[in-house]
Structures are given as C-alpha cells and as structure tokens.
Specification:
Layout: E1 5-8, E2 21-24, H1 28-33, E3 40-41, H2 47-59, H3 62-85, E4 94-97, H4 103-115, E5 119-122, H5 125-143, E6 146-150, H6 157-166, E7 170-172, H7 174-178, H8 199-211, E8 219-222, E9 227-228, E10 231-232, H9 235-242, E11 246-250, H10 253-263, H11 266-269, H12 271-278, H13 282-285, H14 287-298, H15 302-325, E12 331-334, H16 340-349
Parallel strand pairs: 1-5, 2-3, 2-4, 4-5, 6-8, 6-11, 7-8, 11-12
Antiparallel strand pairs: 9-10
Length: 354
C-alpha cells in the first residue's frame, strides 16, 4: 500500500530537516527567476510545453489542454524517474512544490508515493513560500541589530568587512548577493559582467542569509545605495540601515588610488569601455571635464585619472549622500594603509559594544 501524501505550509520552521530533497517541478524559467534555496528543478513541463498548454487552455478548450498536459507531464516524470530516481533508497523523503500546489506537484507526488516513497507537498506551492519571504524580510530586516560601515570609494570597505567576518563578526555582503559592485567603476568589474539575479532570487538568498545570524549580536553591512545595480534593497532592511549606528573608515588618497587600480584592472585593459561609461556623466559635469578625464586615460596616467575622478565625482557624491541616508558616524577610524597590522588595528579600534 502506498504511503499517504502529506502536506505542510511552513517547512522552513524546521529548516527542511525532515526532507532529503526539495523538488521544484515548475518550468526552468520559473525556477530561474526564484526558488527555495537548495531546491532542485525537475520540471514536469518545459518552458515551451507550459506555454503550449496555456495557449490551448485559453484559445481552444480546457479539456484539450488537460489531456495534452497530462501526456506531457507523464512523459517528463518518466524521464526524471529513469535518470535521477532509480538509485534513491526507500527512506527517500522529498518535499515537492509547484506554483500553487496544484496539479503539477500532485502529479509528481502521486507517482513517487505509488513507488513507495514518503512525499510531502508544500500547500499553496511557491506562492506560500513567496509569502514567507516577504514576511521574513519585514521581520528580520526591521529588527536585526545592524552596524553600517561607510567610507569614501576606495576605502576598502569590502576588504575590511571580509576581515571582520574572518574574526567571527557577523557580516552581510549585499553586493555579493546582488552580484554587482555599486559604483560606476564597478559596472565593468569583470570582462564579462556577472548577470545579476532576479529581484525575487536576491530576496530568497537574503532571507536564507539573515536566518543564519544570531539576533543577539550585531551584523555589519556596507553603506550601500538603495539600489545595487538593478536590485532593490528591501524597504525594511534599508530603513533599518538608515537608523543604525555608523562607523567611518578613512584612508589616504594615495592608498585609495592604489587599491582601485589593483581591484579594477579593466581600467587599464579596456579604456574604450571606460570612456563610454564616463560619457554618461557629460550632462552632470559637461564635456570639458569629461575630455580632461579622457586625456588622462589616453596618456595612460592612471593614478592621476583615478585621483581626479575620486576628487571630482565620487567624493562629492559621498559627502552629499551620506547624511541623507545614514546617521552621522559615531566613530571614525583613520588607517595609514591596508597591511595586516592596519587591518588588525581597525578591528581592535571598534568600540567594544559594537
């Protein structure tokens, strides 16, 4: 006798512990936009098949669509069984979900249950999970104890946060989750830029990260903009950042220039692309200033160019934006450089309550 198919509405409360696998049976396009972290995609309809069934449903007949859909679903489930499930042990216990917890997930769960595996369905499917993400962002984003690290562009904030993390400080790296460096220079930080995630997938990864933090300890985060590339920082988290204590790090200009040239070698390797990016600043600064920057690029005077764009673009922008979005720094730490001794002094200089 086949075991019964169970259902759940909040598997994340137990961190999915009872389940050996989380199976997302939606189409690859739905899965790519967002999914439960750790889930694997075994689509019962491909992108094209899902579109076909939907078209038949609306333009011809729901009954015809169900017949064709059932044939396609059966074929795809059979292929998944042959290629991925024949070696699964009897104790295999998957959690299965689709868009609404409807026919697609029930079809897959029924077949696995008939084989003899214990299966559990996520009631409401992905929509239930998405509601949980929104609620978690509102809760965690608003209540976690944050500490904001700010500083001029080139102040090694990311490197310092990584050093804090290595010392067991809790660190939230929003730029890494968003796959984007938040400045003009950062737009081309790879020869082939890394594609940013969909907003929903960013939020899923963010919730998964926030759940790992100890709410009784502070969490360090960089003073990001409200948007990181095309990604929007969720409002509860952004507002929490705006009212949280701020620590500012200050590096000498020469050190900032050296750091940026080392971190962004494309400045030298792709000058034409750099000049194209700078052209977007013509309305703000006028052609004469942009041409002056172009001249430094053409002459390969890279330290002079980086210093000029810091002093004339980045630094004034920082001075205007910081008081609009964040509290005044309660502590300012001046570093001579970024040697291990400097970084260790930065960590030791932080106020004990931080």
């Amino acid at each position: 006798m086949a075991p019964p198919i169970h259902s759940t509405t909040n598997p994340w409360d137990q961190d999915f512990q009872p389940y050996t696998t989380i199976i997302d049976v939606r189409s690859p396009a739905e899965f790519a936009e967002d999914h439960i972290p750790g889930a694997v995609n075994f689509p019962v309809l491909s992108n094209e098949e899902r579109a076909l069934v939907g078209t038949i449903y609306t333009q011809r007949s729901p009954f015809e669509a169900r017949k064709i859909g059932a044939a396609l679903v059966s074929k795809n489930i059979g292929r998944h069984l042959e290629t991925h499930f024949l070696e699964k042990p009897k104790e295999f216990h998957p959690l299965i979900y689709c868009w609404r917890g409807g026919q697609r997930s029930h079809s897959f769960a029924t077949v696995l249950s008939q084989i003899g595996w214990q299966t559990t369905l996520l009631s409401g499917g992905y929509k239930t999970y998405r509601q949980y993400v929104r609620q978690a962002l509102a809760q965690f984003g608003a209540t976690l104890s944050l500490r904001v690290l700010c500083g001029y562009t080139g102040s090694a904030k990311t490197k310092l946060l990584q050093a804090l993390q290595a010392e067991q400080f809790q660190v939230l790296d929003l730029e890494a989750l968003a796959a984007h460096r938040g400045s003009l220079l950062g737009q081309m930080w790879q020869t082939t830029p890394q594609q940013q995630p969909a907003q929903k997938w960013f939020e899923s990864q963010l919730v998964a990260q926030l759940k790992t933090f100890d709410p009784g300890r502070p969490i360090w985060v960089e003073s990001e903009s409200k948007t990181i590339g095309k990604i929007h920082v969720p409002k509860p988290l952004w507002e929490n950042m705006g009212r949280s204590p701020v620590v500012e790090v200050v590096l000498p200009m020469a050190e900032r220039v050296k750091l940026l040239i080392a971190e962004y070698p494309h400045l030298i390797e792709h000058p034409a692309t750099l000049k194209q990016l700078l052209s977007h600043l013509v309305p703000k600064y006028g052609k004469r200033k942009i041409q002056a920057w172009y001249a430094l690029i053409d002459a390969q005077q890279w330290p002079e160019f980086v210093e000029a764009i810091l002093e004339e673009h980045y630094d004034p922008t920082y001075r205007r934006s910081l008081p609009r979005h964040f509290r005044q720094p309660q502590q300012t730490i001046h570093l001579d450089g970024l040697d291990p001794a400097d970084i260790q002094r930065f960590i030791q200089t932080l106020n004990p309550e931080q």
